[in-house]
Amino acid sequence: MLDRDKPLLIQSDRTILLDLACPDAENARLDIIPFSELIKSPEHMHTYSLSALSLWNAISAGLSADEIVARLKKWSRYDIDQRVLFFIEDTASRYGNFILTEDESDNQRLLLKVNKKLFFLQLSSSALAKKYLKAEGDNTFSLSRLERGKIKVELIKMGFPVDDRIPLNKGEHVDMNLKSTFSARDYQETAVNSFLGSGERGTGFGTIVLPCGSGKTIVGLLAMARLKTRTLILCPNVQSVHQWMREIAEKTDIPEDMVGEYSGDSKEIKPITVSTYQILTYRKPGCEDYLHFSLLRDGKWGFIIYDEVHMLPAPVFRITAELQSIYRLGLTATLIREDGREDEVFSLVGPKRFDTPWSELAERGYIAQAYCHEIRVALDEDDEIKYALASKREKYRIASVNKRKLNIIEDLVKKHSDDSILIIGQYIEQLEEIKKRFSWPIVTGKTSNKVRDEIYQKFRQRKIRVLIVSKVANFAIDLPDCSVAIQVSGTFGSRQEEAQRLGRILRPKEKSSHFYTIITEYSEEEEFAMNRQKFLSEQGYSYTLERADV
Prior knowledge:
By secondary structure, this protein is an alpha/beta fold.
């Protein structure tokens, strides 16, 4: 059966194409968001995917398999392949067979009840059970409360989702409200509602995915104002710590003396504490202990915000597994991790609760319209023989630091004479060479936090128009007027880095933004550039290509 007016094309591989030309496309999108994952959102057709995890997340939030199937049939242009329907029903049937509850006789232990004997026997014979679980009768295991997160992660990997019925602890009350002069955008309110729901079991933990520049910090503040509890905010660097503290001061009524910074520079623990991943994972040379893990373990937090959650270091994964009784929110522009650990973010911090296409927010004026350009330049003649004899990794470095890129930089800076410009690169020697030639200021990992803050402030005030930055500027720096980024080298094929670097110029502004990538033609850099651009192409951005004559 064919109905061309319906917007969904549901394919046998469980991908869902949403035809934006159909009048009901937006209604269909809202219907499928709770149980599918956005994969691509170019200009005419968006792609979603049905996965076991996306379905289990929806079912845990109260949707049934019947309701999911009914929504798909309502909007599907064609009859749905029977294999897709079977996958939905089979996946849904797996949820609810493993139930995690409290052990009323021992508050240090939890109980894992298994509703099907076959599943109980399967788990009994697994290495996981032998190490962490103790059989209590013919359908129940007991486990340590501290292993709650680890068990959930491992069982999902085995295809056994856990229905976690242990309530979250709200934590110590902290009176905090948003100032009356501040108003949130509609999608920010929707994101927080998706995260908190109506307070029912299965909500209050999860991840919000929004583009850089769209106000993820505001989403965190909205959630804090709703929960009104002792809160720890974890950030990728000290600059983002200071940005959070500025936003808290400007937009909430909480007294300044109730907000503390816990970093390499300061060790304050207050009802609202803002810290960095680096300080949490610090340990002395030759020592296995992480000196500051007590901040997470013993802080009596009611709410933890993981800013740039895709950067979550491995040691913080481990301790996050212990914090399953706490409200927790992950914020990110992309859940892509080059180490492939996205599932652990989902399992330990929580499922993706809200996502929206970058192009949609750009159309509404909430982030800047951005144009991406790739400029290819020939390899410097002095390096041709060295390049030909080098290893693959060394070839990439030689191509990345190609001296001919400097002339392109000069031309682009002249072309955008009225713009605030970032020059971004991976290799410090290359950035120092740019500084030597043009005398622009530079920020690298060796630049002290105090000096970084001073340079960024001058850039915001337009006292500095062009700034050279290393990968330290990939994340969470607030440079709202920056409208041009020139990328001279990157971390191999990192899609996540490409997205973050574009994000430096996406704060809404009257003029359009431009993102330039300069690469060496006929080199290893070309292949890596294609992979880096993949994520942004899927978000609806296109790259113009040109060959430089220098």
